[in-house]
Protein backbone atom coordinates (compact mmCIF):
# COMPACT_ATOMS: atom_id res chain seq x y z
CA UNK A 1 0.00 0.00 0.00
CA UNK A 2 1.13 3.52 -0.61
CA UNK A 3 -0.03 7.09 -0.53
CA UNK A 4 -0.37 9.16 -3.63
CA UNK A 5 -0.49 12.92 -3.50
CA UNK A 6 -3.72 14.23 -5.00
CA UNK A 7 -3.29 17.92 -4.37
CA UNK A 8 -1.27 20.49 -2.43
CA UNK A 9 -3.07 23.52 -1.07
CA UNK A 10 -0.66 26.44 -0.89
CA UNK A 11 -0.93 29.96 0.39
CA UNK A 12 -0.18 30.01 4.09
CA UNK A 13 2.97 31.98 4.87
CA UNK A 14 3.62 30.32 8.23
CA UNK A 15 3.13 26.94 9.92
CA UNK A 16 -0.23 25.34 9.28
CA UNK A 17 -1.54 24.02 12.59
CA UNK A 18 -4.90 22.44 11.84
CA UNK A 19 -7.52 21.63 9.24
CA UNK A 20 -11.20 20.73 9.22
CA UNK A 21 -13.40 19.14 6.58
CA UNK A 22 -17.12 19.91 6.57
CA UNK A 23 -19.25 16.85 7.27
CA UNK A 24 -21.69 17.47 4.40
CA UNK A 25 -20.23 20.09 2.07
CA UNK A 26 -16.95 19.89 0.13
CA UNK A 27 -15.32 22.54 2.29
CA UNK A 28 -11.82 22.49 3.74
CA UNK A 29 -10.66 25.04 6.31
CA UNK A 30 -6.99 25.48 7.28
CA UNK A 31 -5.46 27.71 9.98
CA UNK A 32 -1.95 29.02 10.40
CA UNK A 33 0.61 31.03 12.29
CA UNK A 34 0.05 33.66 9.59
CA UNK A 35 -3.20 34.44 11.46
CA UNK A 36 -5.46 33.56 8.57
CA UNK A 37 -7.94 30.81 7.91
CA UNK A 38 -8.22 29.64 4.32
CA UNK A 39 -11.38 27.98 3.02
CA UNK A 40 -11.14 25.77 -0.08
CA UNK A 41 -13.58 23.86 -2.23
CA UNK A 42 -12.35 20.30 -1.81
CA UNK A 43 -13.77 19.22 -5.17
CA UNK A 44 -12.47 22.00 -7.40
CA UNK A 45 -9.48 22.65 -5.05
CA UNK A 46 -10.17 26.34 -5.50
CA UNK A 47 -9.62 28.86 -2.74
CA UNK A 48 -13.00 30.27 -1.71
CA UNK A 49 -12.05 32.82 0.91
CA UNK A 50 -9.30 33.89 3.28
CA UNK A 51 -10.80 34.73 6.67
CA UNK A 52 -8.54 37.53 7.78
CA UNK A 53 -9.86 40.79 9.08
CA UNK A 54 -7.47 41.29 11.99
CA UNK A 55 -9.95 39.67 14.34
CA UNK A 56 -7.07 37.64 15.77
CA UNK A 57 -3.73 39.08 16.86
CA UNK A 58 -1.87 35.78 17.18
CA UNK A 59 -1.48 32.29 15.68
CA UNK A 60 -4.65 30.44 14.73
CA UNK A 61 -4.17 27.05 16.31
CA UNK A 62 -7.41 25.20 15.72
CA UNK A 63 -10.46 25.13 13.50
CA UNK A 64 -13.62 23.07 13.22
CA UNK A 65 -16.71 23.22 11.04
CA UNK A 66 -20.02 23.12 12.86
CA UNK A 67 -21.69 19.85 11.82
CA UNK A 68 -25.21 21.28 11.82
CA UNK A 69 -27.10 24.40 10.79
CA UNK A 70 -28.82 25.84 7.76
CA UNK A 71 -25.59 27.32 6.50
CA UNK A 72 -21.89 26.44 6.89
CA UNK A 73 -20.10 27.95 9.85
CA UNK A 74 -16.88 27.29 11.73
CA UNK A 75 -15.04 28.05 14.94
CA UNK A 76 -11.40 29.18 15.05
CA UNK A 77 -9.28 29.09 18.21
CA UNK A 78 -6.31 31.43 18.56
CA UNK A 79 -3.25 31.90 20.73
CA UNK A 80 -4.72 35.36 21.43
CA UNK A 81 -7.11 33.47 23.79
CA UNK A 82 -10.28 34.16 21.80
CA UNK A 83 -12.47 32.09 19.50
CA UNK A 84 -14.04 33.50 16.37
CA UNK A 85 -17.12 32.14 14.63
CA UNK A 86 -17.52 32.61 10.91
CA UNK A 87 -20.31 31.65 8.56
CA UNK A 88 -21.90 32.03 5.18
CA UNK A 89 -25.62 32.67 5.37
CA UNK A 90 -26.06 33.00 1.62
CA UNK A 91 -26.66 30.22 -0.84
CA UNK A 92 -23.57 31.00 -2.91
CA UNK A 93 -20.62 29.51 -1.05
CA UNK A 94 -18.09 30.55 -3.65
CA UNK A 95 -18.65 34.26 -3.15
CA UNK A 96 -16.08 35.38 -0.66
CA UNK A 97 -18.09 38.41 0.37
CA UNK A 98 -20.72 36.13 1.86
CA UNK A 99 -18.37 34.89 4.56
CA UNK A 100 -18.73 37.00 7.67
CA UNK A 101 -17.51 37.12 11.24
CA UNK A 102 -20.50 36.16 13.39
CA UNK A 103 -19.09 36.19 16.92
CA UNK A 104 -15.96 36.53 19.00
CA UNK A 105 -15.96 34.44 22.14
CA UNK A 106 -13.83 35.51 25.08
CA UNK A 107 -13.22 33.81 28.39
CA UNK A 108 -9.97 31.88 28.35
CA UNK A 109 -6.94 33.42 30.01
CA UNK A 110 -4.26 32.05 27.69
CA UNK A 111 -3.69 30.53 24.28
CA UNK A 112 -6.48 28.40 22.92
CA UNK A 113 -5.17 25.07 21.68
CA UNK A 114 -8.31 23.32 20.52
CA UNK A 115 -11.96 23.80 19.56
CA UNK A 116 -14.57 21.13 18.83
CA UNK A 117 -18.32 20.98 18.19
CA UNK A 118 -20.57 18.28 19.61
CA UNK A 119 -22.24 16.02 17.04
CA UNK A 120 -25.58 17.87 17.34
CA UNK A 121 -23.93 21.29 17.01
CA UNK A 122 -25.36 22.37 20.36
CA UNK A 123 -22.08 22.58 22.21
CA UNK A 124 -18.70 24.02 21.39
CA UNK A 125 -15.77 22.95 23.58
CA UNK A 126 -12.56 24.97 23.77
CA UNK A 127 -9.35 24.21 25.64
CA UNK A 128 -6.38 26.32 26.61
CA UNK A 129 -3.00 26.62 28.28
CA UNK A 130 -4.99 28.00 31.22
CA UNK A 131 -5.71 24.30 32.05
CA UNK A 132 -9.44 24.66 31.52
CA UNK A 133 -12.01 23.43 29.04
CA UNK A 134 -15.04 25.65 28.46
CA UNK A 135 -18.26 24.22 27.14
CA UNK A 136 -20.34 26.78 25.26
CA UNK A 137 -23.93 26.38 24.24
CA UNK A 138 -24.57 27.79 20.79
CA UNK A 139 -27.83 28.94 19.23
CA UNK A 140 -28.75 27.96 15.68
CA UNK A 141 -27.63 31.27 14.20
CA UNK A 142 -24.30 31.40 16.06
CA UNK A 143 -25.24 34.74 17.53
CA UNK A 144 -25.00 33.84 21.17
CA UNK A 145 -22.63 31.60 23.00
CA UNK A 146 -23.27 30.92 26.63
CA UNK A 147 -20.66 29.20 28.73
CA UNK A 148 -22.53 26.39 30.49
CA UNK A 149 -19.61 24.68 32.19
CA UNK A 150 -15.92 25.09 32.88
CA UNK A 151 -13.88 21.90 33.32
CA UNK A 152 -10.85 22.32 35.54
CA UNK A 153 -9.75 18.75 36.04
CA UNK A 154 -6.44 18.95 34.21
CA UNK A 155 -3.35 20.08 36.12
CA UNK A 156 -1.63 21.51 33.01
CA UNK A 157 -2.31 22.90 29.51
CA UNK A 158 -5.15 21.20 27.67
CA UNK A 159 -3.83 20.54 24.18
CA UNK A 160 -6.79 19.11 22.35
CA UNK A 161 -10.49 18.36 22.71
CA UNK A 162 -12.72 16.16 20.59
CA UNK A 163 -16.31 14.95 20.86
CA UNK A 164 -17.66 11.51 20.15
CA UNK A 165 -19.54 11.39 16.82
CA UNK A 166 -22.87 10.38 18.37
CA UNK A 167 -22.76 10.82 22.14
CA UNK A 168 -22.19 13.91 24.23
CA UNK A 169 -18.85 12.60 25.43
CA UNK A 170 -15.75 14.76 25.25
CA UNK A 171 -12.12 13.57 25.30
CA UNK A 172 -9.39 16.02 26.31
CA UNK A 173 -5.62 15.58 25.94
CA UNK A 174 -3.13 17.40 28.12
CA UNK A 175 0.40 18.45 28.96
CA UNK A 176 -0.26 16.61 32.24
CA UNK A 177 0.21 13.34 30.25
CA UNK A 178 -3.42 12.24 30.63
CA UNK A 179 -6.56 11.95 28.56
CA UNK A 180 -9.78 12.69 30.42
CA UNK A 181 -13.32 11.90 29.40
CA UNK A 182 -16.34 13.99 30.24
CA UNK A 183 -20.00 13.14 29.91
CA UNK A 184 -23.07 15.29 30.20
CA UNK A 185 -24.84 14.58 33.49
CA UNK A 186 -28.13 12.72 33.03
CA UNK A 187 -29.97 14.86 35.54
CA UNK A 188 -28.42 18.22 35.08
CA UNK A 189 -27.61 18.89 31.46
CA UNK A 190 -25.42 21.82 32.38
CA UNK A 191 -23.19 19.61 34.48
CA UNK A 192 -20.33 17.70 32.90
CA UNK A 193 -18.87 14.80 34.79
CA UNK A 194 -15.28 13.58 34.58
CA UNK A 195 -16.06 9.91 33.89
CA UNK A 196 -12.57 8.58 33.23
CA UNK A 197 -8.86 9.40 33.38
CA UNK A 198 -6.64 7.53 30.95
CA UNK A 199 -3.14 7.44 32.36
CA UNK A 200 -0.04 5.76 31.04
CA UNK A 201 1.47 8.11 28.48
CA UNK A 202 4.91 9.31 29.50
CA UNK A 203 4.72 12.72 27.90
CA UNK A 204 2.25 15.35 26.75
CA UNK A 205 -0.79 13.87 25.03
CA UNK A 206 -1.21 15.89 21.85
CA UNK A 207 -4.45 14.52 20.46
CA UNK A 208 -7.05 11.79 20.63
CA UNK A 209 -9.74 10.42 18.35
CA UNK A 210 -12.70 8.11 18.92
CA UNK A 211 -13.30 4.94 16.96
CA UNK A 212 -15.97 5.70 14.35
CA UNK A 213 -17.82 2.39 14.70
CA UNK A 214 -21.31 2.20 16.22
CA UNK A 215 -23.52 4.63 18.05
CA UNK A 216 -21.87 4.32 21.44
CA UNK A 217 -18.41 5.09 22.73
CA UNK A 218 -16.22 2.05 22.08
CA UNK A 219 -12.55 2.89 21.82
CA UNK A 220 -10.27 5.92 21.77
CA UNK A 221 -6.81 6.43 20.26
CA UNK A 222 -4.35 8.91 21.77
CA UNK A 223 -1.02 10.22 20.49
CA UNK A 224 1.77 11.55 22.65
CA UNK A 225 5.10 13.27 22.95
CA UNK A 226 6.38 9.92 24.21
CA UNK A 227 6.27 8.63 20.63
CA UNK A 228 3.42 6.17 21.17
CA UNK A 229 -0.21 5.83 20.16
CA UNK A 230 -2.38 4.05 22.69
CA UNK A 231 -5.72 2.39 22.11
CA UNK A 232 -8.12 2.57 25.03
CA UNK A 233 -11.24 0.45 25.32
CA UNK A 234 -14.34 1.10 27.40
CA UNK A 235 -15.27 -1.91 29.53
CA UNK A 236 -18.24 -0.52 31.33
CA UNK A 237 -19.93 2.83 30.78
CA UNK A 238 -20.99 4.95 33.73
CA UNK A 239 -24.40 3.85 34.93
CA UNK A 240 -26.93 5.80 32.93
CA UNK A 241 -29.96 4.15 34.56
CA UNK A 242 -31.57 6.01 37.47
CA UNK A 243 -30.37 4.48 40.71
CA UNK A 244 -31.19 4.89 44.37
CA UNK A 245 -28.61 7.56 44.94
CA UNK A 246 -29.56 9.48 41.84
CA UNK A 247 -30.67 12.45 43.89
CA UNK A 248 -27.27 12.91 45.42
CA UNK A 249 -25.03 15.52 43.89
CA UNK A 250 -22.77 14.07 41.25
CA UNK A 251 -19.67 14.65 43.32
CA UNK A 252 -20.81 12.12 45.91
CA UNK A 253 -21.92 9.28 43.70
CA UNK A 254 -18.53 9.03 42.07
CA UNK A 255 -18.59 5.27 41.75
CA UNK A 256 -21.60 5.07 39.49
CA UNK A 257 -20.33 8.00 37.51
CA UNK A 258 -17.10 6.41 36.42
CA UNK A 259 -16.53 4.69 33.12
CA UNK A 260 -14.25 1.68 33.26
CA UNK A 261 -11.56 1.93 30.61
CA UNK A 262 -8.52 -0.20 29.94
CA UNK A 263 -5.45 0.16 27.78
CA UNK A 264 -6.08 -2.28 24.98
CA UNK A 265 -2.80 -1.95 23.14
CA UNK A 266 0.02 0.31 22.00
CA UNK A 267 0.31 0.64 18.22
CA UNK A 268 3.58 -0.49 16.64
CA UNK A 269 6.15 2.22 17.35
CA UNK A 270 7.70 3.83 14.32
CA UNK A 271 7.57 7.59 14.85
CA UNK A 272 10.65 9.35 16.13
CA UNK A 273 9.71 12.17 18.46
CA UNK A 274 6.34 13.71 19.31
CA UNK A 275 3.20 12.44 17.55
CA UNK A 276 1.10 15.56 17.13
CA UNK A 277 -2.05 14.13 15.60
CA UNK A 278 -3.96 10.87 15.35
CA UNK A 279 -7.09 10.17 13.31
CA UNK A 280 -9.35 7.11 13.34
CA UNK A 281 -11.03 6.68 9.96
CA UNK A 282 -14.49 5.35 9.16
CA UNK A 283 -12.62 2.65 7.23
CA UNK A 284 -11.23 1.43 10.58
CA UNK A 285 -7.67 2.53 9.85
CA UNK A 286 -5.74 4.82 12.17
CA UNK A 287 -3.38 7.47 10.77
CA UNK A 288 -0.78 9.53 12.60
CA UNK A 289 1.74 12.32 11.97
CA UNK A 290 4.37 14.13 13.99
CA UNK A 291 7.66 15.86 14.27
CA UNK A 292 9.44 13.25 12.14
CA UNK A 293 7.48 14.19 9.01
CA UNK A 294 6.15 10.66 8.59
CA UNK A 295 2.58 9.71 7.70
CA UNK A 296 1.80 6.33 9.24
CA UNK A 297 -1.35 4.26 8.65
CA UNK A 298 -2.22 1.30 10.87
CA UNK A 299 -4.62 -1.56 10.16
CA UNK A 300 -6.17 -3.74 12.83
CA UNK A 301 -5.55 -7.47 12.50
CA UNK A 302 -7.30 -8.46 15.72
CA UNK A 303 -8.16 -6.69 18.93
CA UNK A 304 -4.61 -6.32 20.17
CA UNK A 305 -2.63 -6.52 17.00
CA UNK A 306 -2.18 -3.71 14.54
CA UNK A 307 -0.05 -3.65 11.44
CA UNK A 308 1.63 -0.67 9.83
CA UNK A 309 0.44 -0.61 6.24
CA UNK A 310 1.92 2.75 5.27
CA UNK A 311 4.91 4.60 6.61
CA UNK A 312 5.86 7.48 4.40
CA UNK A 313 8.77 9.70 5.46
CA UNK A 314 9.35 13.28 4.27
CA UNK A 315 5.69 13.81 3.54
CA UNK A 316 6.20 17.55 3.96
CA UNK A 317 9.89 17.51 3.04
CA UNK A 318 12.02 18.01 6.14
CA UNK A 319 9.20 19.80 7.97
CA UNK A 320 7.11 18.66 10.92
CA UNK A 321 3.50 17.64 10.36
CA UNK A 322 1.01 19.04 12.82
CA UNK A 323 -2.32 17.57 11.83
CA UNK A 324 -3.93 14.67 10.00
CA UNK A 325 -7.59 14.08 9.10
CA UNK A 326 -9.46 11.36 7.25
CA UNK A 327 -11.83 12.22 4.43
CA UNK A 328 -13.25 8.88 3.29
CA UNK A 329 -10.19 6.94 2.12
CA UNK A 330 -8.25 10.13 1.67
CA UNK A 331 -6.01 11.90 4.15
CA UNK A 332 -5.32 15.57 4.71
CA UNK A 333 -2.10 16.69 6.38
CA UNK A 334 -0.89 20.12 7.51
CA UNK A 335 2.76 20.99 8.00
CA UNK A 336 5.25 23.51 9.28
CA UNK A 337 5.95 24.30 5.62
CA UNK A 338 2.52 25.97 5.55
CA UNK A 339 1.27 23.39 3.06
CA UNK A 340 -1.86 21.31 3.25
CA UNK A 341 -1.71 18.05 1.32
CA UNK A 342 -4.49 15.76 0.15
CA UNK A 343 -3.45 12.10 -0.16
CA UNK A 344 -5.13 9.00 -1.50
CA UNK A 345 -4.60 5.49 -0.21
CA UNK A 346 -3.46 3.46 -3.20
CA UNK A 347 -4.35 -0.19 -2.62
CA UNK B 1 17.28 43.70 37.91
CA UNK B 2 18.33 44.70 41.40
CA UNK B 3 18.60 41.34 43.13
CA UNK B 4 20.76 39.04 41.14
CA UNK B 5 19.77 35.41 41.29
CA UNK B 6 23.37 34.34 41.15
CA UNK B 7 25.53 37.24 42.26
CA UNK B 8 28.91 35.59 41.78
CA UNK B 9 28.97 33.17 38.88
CA UNK B 10 32.09 31.39 37.74
CA UNK B 11 33.45 33.07 34.63
CA UNK B 12 35.65 31.64 31.91
CA UNK B 13 38.18 33.69 30.01
CA UNK B 14 37.02 34.34 26.45
CA UNK B 15 40.36 33.17 25.05
CA UNK B 16 39.86 29.76 26.60
CA UNK B 17 36.59 29.17 24.80
CA UNK B 18 36.48 26.96 21.75
CA UNK B 19 35.50 28.67 18.54
CA UNK B 20 35.63 28.27 14.81
CA UNK B 21 35.87 32.00 14.23
CA UNK B 22 39.41 32.88 13.04
CA UNK B 23 41.00 29.95 14.81
CA UNK B 24 41.63 27.41 12.15
CA UNK B 25 44.58 25.92 14.03
CA UNK B 26 42.40 24.89 16.93
CA UNK B 27 40.28 22.82 14.65
CA UNK B 28 43.25 21.03 13.17
CA UNK B 29 44.44 20.01 16.60
CA UNK B 30 41.24 18.39 17.66
CA UNK B 31 41.08 14.64 17.31
CA UNK B 32 37.53 14.03 16.16
CA UNK B 33 36.85 17.27 14.37
CA UNK B 34 38.68 16.58 11.10
CA UNK B 35 36.32 13.68 10.50
CA UNK B 36 33.32 15.84 11.09
CA UNK B 37 34.74 18.58 8.95
CA UNK B 38 35.39 16.39 5.96
CA UNK B 39 31.83 15.17 6.30
CA UNK B 40 30.38 18.60 6.28
CA UNK B 41 32.62 19.74 3.43
CA UNK B 42 31.32 16.83 1.48
CA UNK B 43 27.79 17.81 2.14
CA UNK B 44 27.85 21.53 1.66
CA UNK B 45 25.45 21.87 -1.25
CA UNK B 46 26.18 23.98 -4.26
CA UNK B 47 24.27 27.13 -3.95
CA UNK B 48 23.61 29.68 -6.63
CA UNK B 49 26.42 31.82 -5.36
CA UNK B 50 29.14 29.20 -5.35
CA UNK B 51 30.75 28.97 -8.72
CA UNK B 52 30.87 25.50 -10.29
CA UNK B 53 33.90 23.50 -9.33
CA UNK B 54 34.82 25.52 -6.31
CA UNK B 55 34.63 23.73 -3.01
CA UNK B 56 33.02 25.95 -0.44
CA UNK B 57 35.57 26.47 2.26
CA UNK B 58 34.36 25.85 5.74
CA UNK B 59 36.54 28.58 7.12
CA UNK B 60 34.51 31.32 5.48
CA UNK B 61 31.88 30.42 7.94
CA UNK B 62 28.69 31.82 6.53
CA UNK B 63 26.93 31.25 9.77
CA UNK B 64 25.51 34.70 10.19
CA UNK B 65 21.86 34.75 11.02
CA UNK B 66 19.37 34.84 8.16
CA UNK B 67 21.87 33.04 6.00
CA UNK B 68 20.19 29.88 4.85
CA UNK B 69 22.63 28.80 2.23
CA UNK B 70 24.51 26.20 4.21
CA UNK B 71 22.92 22.87 4.91
CA UNK B 72 25.30 21.13 7.27
CA UNK B 73 26.85 22.24 10.50
CA UNK B 74 28.96 20.64 13.18
CA UNK B 75 28.95 20.93 16.94
CA UNK B 76 31.56 23.68 16.96
CA UNK B 77 29.53 25.82 14.59
CA UNK B 78 26.50 25.36 16.80
CA UNK B 79 28.63 26.28 19.78
CA UNK B 80 29.70 29.45 18.00
CA UNK B 81 26.07 30.32 17.30
CA UNK B 82 24.91 30.01 20.89
CA UNK B 83 27.95 30.66 23.09
CA UNK B 84 27.86 34.33 22.13
CA UNK B 85 24.30 34.78 23.45
CA UNK B 86 24.27 37.09 26.46
CA UNK B 87 23.15 35.88 29.83
CA UNK B 88 19.87 37.62 30.77
CA UNK B 89 21.32 38.57 34.13
CA UNK B 90 25.05 39.15 33.73
CA UNK B 91 26.95 41.18 31.12
CA UNK B 92 28.60 37.93 30.05
CA UNK B 93 27.96 35.36 27.37
CA UNK B 94 26.60 31.86 27.85
CA UNK B 95 30.01 30.58 26.75
CA UNK B 96 31.85 32.61 29.38
CA UNK B 97 29.50 31.39 32.08
CA UNK B 98 29.87 27.80 30.84
CA UNK B 99 26.10 27.54 30.53
CA UNK B 100 26.75 26.11 27.10
CA UNK B 101 29.70 23.82 26.54
CA UNK B 102 31.00 22.25 23.37
CA UNK B 103 30.97 18.75 24.84
CA UNK B 104 27.28 19.10 25.67
CA UNK B 105 26.27 19.60 22.06
CA UNK B 106 25.34 16.41 20.31
CA UNK B 107 24.58 16.23 16.64
CA UNK B 108 22.84 13.44 14.79
CA UNK B 109 23.08 14.36 11.15
CA UNK B 110 23.52 12.27 8.04
CA UNK B 111 24.56 15.43 6.23
CA UNK B 112 21.94 14.80 3.57
CA UNK B 113 20.03 18.06 3.03
CA UNK B 114 16.84 16.06 2.43
CA UNK B 115 17.01 14.24 5.74
CA UNK B 116 15.92 15.42 9.16
CA UNK B 117 18.80 16.00 11.59
CA UNK B 118 18.80 16.34 15.35
CA UNK B 119 20.74 18.67 17.63
CA UNK B 120 20.68 17.97 21.35
CA UNK B 121 22.01 20.72 23.58
CA UNK B 122 22.39 20.36 27.32
CA UNK B 123 22.68 23.58 29.23
CA UNK B 124 24.25 23.97 32.65
CA UNK B 125 22.46 26.62 34.71
CA UNK B 126 24.84 28.57 36.92
CA UNK B 127 22.86 27.60 40.02
CA UNK B 128 20.46 24.70 40.53
CA UNK B 129 17.40 26.82 41.22
CA UNK B 130 18.02 29.27 38.39
CA UNK B 131 14.63 30.60 37.41
CA UNK B 132 16.08 31.94 34.20
CA UNK B 133 16.91 28.50 32.83
CA UNK B 134 13.80 28.43 30.64
CA UNK B 135 14.51 31.90 29.31
CA UNK B 136 18.08 30.93 28.46
CA UNK B 137 16.85 27.77 26.78
CA UNK B 138 14.30 29.72 24.81
CA UNK B 139 16.98 32.18 23.70
CA UNK B 140 19.11 29.30 22.43
CA UNK B 141 16.14 27.81 20.61
CA UNK B 142 15.20 31.09 18.94
CA UNK B 143 18.81 31.66 17.89
CA UNK B 144 19.11 28.19 16.36
CA UNK B 145 15.69 28.26 14.71
CA UNK B 146 16.67 31.49 13.01
CA UNK B 147 20.08 30.23 11.91
CA UNK B 148 19.72 26.54 11.14
CA UNK B 149 17.86 25.14 8.13
CA UNK B 150 14.41 23.73 8.89
CA UNK B 151 15.62 20.14 8.70
CA UNK B 152 17.22 20.46 12.14
CA UNK B 153 15.14 19.35 15.12
CA UNK B 154 16.43 21.17 18.16
CA UNK B 155 16.22 19.50 21.55
CA UNK B 156 17.27 21.57 24.54
CA UNK B 157 17.64 20.11 27.99
CA UNK B 158 19.23 21.14 31.25
CA UNK B 159 22.16 18.90 32.04
CA UNK B 160 21.35 16.07 34.43
CA UNK B 161 21.36 17.07 38.10
CA UNK B 162 22.02 20.74 37.41
CA UNK B 163 18.52 21.99 38.08
CA UNK B 164 15.90 21.35 40.73
CA UNK B 165 13.03 21.19 38.27
CA UNK B 166 14.88 19.48 35.47
CA UNK B 167 11.89 17.66 34.01
CA UNK B 168 9.60 20.68 34.09
CA UNK B 169 12.16 22.89 32.39
CA UNK B 170 12.90 20.25 29.77
CA UNK B 171 9.23 19.71 29.01
CA UNK B 172 8.57 23.40 28.62
CA UNK B 173 11.62 24.03 26.42
CA UNK B 174 10.64 21.32 23.98
CA UNK B 175 6.90 21.91 23.76
CA UNK B 176 6.24 23.18 20.27
CA UNK B 177 3.08 25.10 21.12
CA UNK B 178 4.51 26.77 24.18
CA UNK B 179 7.59 27.85 22.25
CA UNK B 180 5.49 29.20 19.39
CA UNK B 181 3.28 31.12 21.80
CA UNK B 182 6.31 32.48 23.64
CA UNK B 183 7.64 33.78 20.33
CA UNK B 184 4.45 35.80 19.92
CA UNK B 185 4.88 37.41 23.31
CA UNK B 186 6.33 40.88 22.70
CA UNK B 187 7.85 41.33 26.14
CA UNK B 188 9.59 38.00 26.00
CA UNK B 189 10.81 38.68 22.48
CA UNK B 190 12.30 41.96 23.61
CA UNK B 191 14.32 40.22 26.31
CA UNK B 192 15.44 37.54 23.88
CA UNK B 193 16.52 40.01 21.23
CA UNK B 194 18.61 41.71 23.91
CA UNK B 195 20.20 38.38 24.73
CA UNK B 196 20.89 37.77 21.05
CA UNK B 197 22.23 41.26 20.38
CA UNK B 198 25.73 40.13 21.36
CA UNK B 199 25.75 37.38 18.73
CA UNK B 200 28.12 37.75 15.85
Automatic annotation (TrEMBL), chain A:
Q: Is Repeat included in the keywords of this UniProt record?
A: yes
This chain belongs to the protein called: Probable cytosolic iron-sulfur protein assembly protein 1
Name its species.
Komagataella phaffii (strain GS115 / ATCC 20864)
Outline the WD repeats, range by range. 53-86, 105-146, 151-183, 198-234, 321-347
Which keywords accompany this UniProt record? Repeat, WD repeat
The record describes the protein's role as:
Essential component of the cytosolic iron-sulfur (Fe/S) protein assembly machinery. Required for the maturation of extramitochondrial Fe/S proteins.
GO biological process: what's one of them? tRNA wobble uridine modification
Q: Domain of life, per the record?
A: Eukaryota
Note one Pfam family from the annotation.
WD40
Q: Which gene encodes it?
A: CIA1
Record's Gene Ontology CC terms?
cytosol; cytosolic [4Fe-4S] assembly targeting complex; nucleus
In which family does this protein belong, per the annotation? Belongs to the WD repeat CIA1 family.
Which InterPro entries does the protein's record reference? CIAO1/Cia1 (IPR028608), WD40/YVTN_repeat-like_dom_sf (IPR015943), WD40_PAC1 (IPR020472), WD40_repeat_CS (IPR019775), WD40_repeat_dom_sf (IPR036322), WD40_rpt (IPR001680)
Automatic annotation (TrEMBL), chain B:
GO BP field: chromosome segregation; protein maturation
Task: Give the superkingdom in one word.
Answer: Eukaryota
Which InterPro entries has this protein been placed in? FSCA_dom_sf, MIP18
Q: Which UniProt keywords apply?
A: Chromosome partition
- Could you say which protein family the record assigns here? Belongs to the MIP18 family.
Official protein name in the record: Cytosolic iron-sulfur protein assembly machinery component
Give the gene symbol.
CIA2
